[in-house]
Amino acid sequence: MKKDLVILLIILLIGITSPFLFPNFVVNLSVVWLFILFSLTWDVQGGQMGYNSFGNIVFYGLGMYTCALVQVGLFFSIGEWTEAGGEKTFLHTIPQYFTGLGVGLIFSSIIPVLSAIIVGLGLLRVRGQYFAIGTLGLGIAAGEIASGIEVIGGGQGMTVPIWPRAAGTTDLRNLVFYYLSFASFLGTFLFLRWIYQTRFGLTLNAIRDDEDKAEAMGIPTMRYKIIGWCISAFFLGISGALMGNMNGYIDPIDGAFTGSTVGLWMIIMALLGGKGTLWGPIIGAVLFYFFKEFFWMQFLGWQYVALGLLVVVVVVFFPEGLMGWLKRKFPEKFGEVVDKERTSGIHLD
Amino acid sequence: METILKVRNVSKSFGGVEANKEVSLEIKSGDIVGLIGPNGSGKSTLFNMICGIQPIDKGEVIFEGKEISKYNVSEIARFGLLRTFQETKIYSKMTCLENMQISYKTPQDTLMSFFSKISQNVIKKSEELLDFVGLYEKRKLKAGDLSFGQQKLLELAMSLINGPKMLILDEPTAGINPTLINGIIDRLKKANEEFNITLFIIEHNMQVIMGLAKKIYCMNHGKILAQGTPEEIKNNKNVINAYLGAV
Amino acid sequence: MDLMIFTTAPWLNVQAIFDGIMIGAVFSLIAYGMALIWGVMKIINVCQGEYVILGGYITFYLYNTYGINPLYTIPAASLFVFLVSFAIYKLVIVKVIERDLFVSILATFGLSIIIQQLMNTIFGADVEVAQSGLGTEFLFDNMVTVPVTRVFSLIIAVLVAAIVVIFMHYSKLGRAIRATSQNKRAAKVLGVDTDKVYGYTYAINGAICGVAGSLVAMTFTLHPYIGLPYTIRSFMIVITAGLGNFAAIITSGMGLGILEQYADYIIGTQFRIGFVFLLLVFIIIWRSRKLLKKREYLK
Are residues A253 and A172 in the same domain? Predict the structure, then answer.
């Protein structure tokens, strides 16, 4: 109990103070928290449940669009907004902006959850490579479909309402979104930390290790697979909404449903740190973010080649990740011990 | 004694090959019943159909007076009819204790109970059963790191934790060294006597099954060839021809 | 809405089926390559589409720089992708075989990003096409247009398929590949060098993709980032047809080609890629629904 409290306090301390320690990097720091959220939520499927999803990006993109559409649609006509390129002609007042954002955030968590239920009923019945490729298809299809719908801007994308000047400077805006990002990370972290200690967490692991056995033991696996996906969808939806607002602009394929960038990165982040653990995805996301920034600075123009190489190297040579490696090296530190404390009963060997 | 499981005229074919032809059998509550027969005689298929892993083509499976063939695996398991597998199935990346905990179900297993922490009561019960099969000191090790025989014992313990009404075991002693076999037989007998669990066992080891079962069915070519007490089966001409050989 | 057009203008059906078959032949070729390595090496090659586009760019490069007729560049494109994929096998794939399928999916996904980006850097991000200058035929009172290139591409696709099938059945290497795909351990015991077989299988797939890429460059358009739809199409064809069934791969490929043509008319070309990817999801769900009745899973 005491240890939990210390960890929580340290995270809170880092989260609250870092924008003041690094005032020039507030936006980057917000993105780091969201990256951690991505890999944590991917790990619910990929690491804990053994369903390697390439399609979690759908929930992120849906959240992004849902929030923006609510923000606009509450006060203006969406069609006119996208046609005019957004902020050129329409401006939100301060109360409009914050109500829109609040309501948008709520909807951006509900809609992805509903879609997770619908899609999950179909796709969570298939396993292994079929699930992986099916979800990959889903992610790309979502982007292509979004870029074909004219009302939401089609392939041109749409703008998100801008921060009302009267409410404060851009620095204040960045700070607001920083704390929102941090809060959504914290919510994800605490929630996952809690459910991994419950029967639900064990159920996810059981599905990963042997789904047939879990069924044979009477666990209604389908229900828990869908709940697991809903949890990921809920937090990813919110993160998408925040990212959309921070960017100020949504591109259907390169911003929202980015199956071959963010959608792939969330997997690599979890792998890099060690999938199937709570801390692995967190460490992996931070490491990955530094790699990414480094590539962008050092190899501009070749940064995606470098990232592709990173993907291949991590997957081929380091698939167990940092935590997995530590666990294999020092299993006893993770509680895997022969415990002879109490020995009664009959012994065999 | 009342009948706990009744299989009536069950048939199953895979693309023209008839794995089970009009199989009927009856198992009384509290009994230990064996199922023997040569490889490919349809024993495992029959087990799969009883537990709902494969749908049946024709016939009925009645468990405690209820027709269960239309239910799926996990529903049937929740009725109290559990099985173990020939090649052990355990959750290999979880510790033994976690394997036990996840197998335990509270009587009122609601959604909320899934989101509460594992109670001390469950942990205690898990430890007791691990003790019962002799795996207590390895409870914090990964189940996948255990030996094959120990995994079988763990699987048995997992099946016992919910106090099932009936347990279906597919070759519980296959691939296990002779000293451990006695341990398993011992546990099975105890499970039957102390926890009052009906056992239905596929077994190739004649010594084991003859010593354990009160009644034995012998299958061949997808049909029930003979049934009776171990003595009757041992002396049945058909069984000797088809399976036991001239011993 | 637009559905009436197929009854009021019946030639549209002929056009759609014609186009569909010709495009579907190329799809089938790519899918056959995927089925080959999936069956033999047990890996799913996500950079399949990138190999196709790479082959296309070789054709385009030779056509654009030296003015060579695209038809004659097919061997060069095929050889180039053969060599590239053999190198990739030695560097990466060899370490992925016999691991979880997810590992191969992710690793080849990473490779596909690298290839895309390199193509983007070298050939630029414009949409390109290599004209073979064979002209267009008009049939049925000009109601149906048939570009001669597409007819040629159909013929070439059939020829290449025939060559590959003959190779698989009658050459020593081909027989070794088939033996490995049926039972790897037995093949190994009988003296088949499985490592060599894997390398060649992967490279032969590359060669097939190279040919398909040339055909794509002649009949459609090239762009560094359009590889993935080809991968998804082949995956779709393979799971509908099964791994070893060559005839079914051809029919599924052509079926997909025709379906896409109709989809273009009905829901519009802007949804074409979206349609392909959604179709994949539906096929997977449909297959799993069918298995559900037998209480089995797609895995």
Answer: yes
Residues A191 and A275 in one domain: no
The residues, ordered by sequence, that sit 6+ positions from C275 with a Cβ below 8 Å of its Cβ are: C260, C263, C267
ipTM of model = 0.87
- Do A153 and A280 lie in a common domain? no
Task: Tell me: do B126 and B67 sit in the same domain.
Answer: no
pTM of the complete model: 0.90
A242 and A301 fall within a common domain: no
Quote the minimal CA–CA distance from A345 to chain B in Å.
Answer: 6
Nearest to C294 among B52, B55, B73 (CB): B55
Top residue of A129, A258, A295, A317 to mutate, by most chain C CBs within 10 Å, is: A129
**3-class DSSP assignment, residue A186:** helix
Q: Which CATH architecture has domain C16-272?
A: Orthogonal Bundle (1.10)
Q: Are B20 and B55 contained in the same domain?
A: yes
DSSP H stretches of helix in chain C: 5-8, 11-41, 48-66, 74-91, 101-123, 148-170, 172-182, 184-189, 194-219, 227-241, 246-267, 272-293
Question: Which of C121, C274, C297 faces A126 most closely, judged by CB atoms?
Answer: C297
Q: Is C294 helix (H, G, I), strand (E, B) or coil?
A: coil
Note whether A336 contacts B82, CB cutoff 8 Å: no
A 200-219 residues with CB < 8 A to B = 200, 202-203, 205-206, 208-210, 212-219
C113–A129 CB contact, under 8 Å: no
Of B72, B77, B139, the CB nearest to A217: B77
* CB-based contact, C299 to chain A, within 8 Å: yes
Note down pLDDT in tens along chain A; length 349 residues: 678 789 889 999 999 999 999 988 999 999 999 999 999 999 999 999 999 999 999 999 999 999 999 999 988 888 888 877 655 567 888 889 999 999 999 999 999 999 999 999 999 988 888 999 999 999 989 999 998 888 888 888 888 988 888 888 889 999 999 999 999 999 999 999 999 988 899 999 999 999 999 988 888 899 999 999 999 999 999 999 999 999 989 999 888 899 888 999 999 999 999 999 999 999 999 999 999 999 988 888 888 899 999 999 999 988 888 888 888 888 887 777 776 654 444 444 3
What are the sequence ranges of the domains in chain C? 16-272
Question: Which residues on adjacent β-strands are paired with residue B220?
Answer: B223
Residue A270 at interface with chain C, using a CB cutoff of 8 Å: no
Tell which of A238, A259, A280 closes a domain: A259
Domain ranges, residue A318? 261-331
A77 and A106 assigned to the same domain: yes
Asked if B169 and B201 sit in the same domain, the reply is yes
Q: Do B54 and C295 touch (CB under 8 A)?
A: yes
Q: Are residues B7 and B75 in the same domain?
A: yes
List the subunits that have 3+ CB pairs under 8 angstroms with A.
B, C
Which helix (DSSP H) or strand (DSSP E) does residue A59 occupy?
helix A57-73
Q: For residue A197, which residues of chain B lie inside 8 Å, CB to CB?
A: 117-118
Cβ contacts of B231 within 8 Å, gap of 6 or more: none
Counting the structural domains of chain B, the total is 2
**Tokens standing for B100?**
């036990």
Asked if C164 and C208 count as a contact pair (C-beta separation under 8 A), the reply is yes
Q: Check CB contact under 8 Å for C117 and A264.
A: no
CA A203 to CA A348: how far, in whole Å?
30
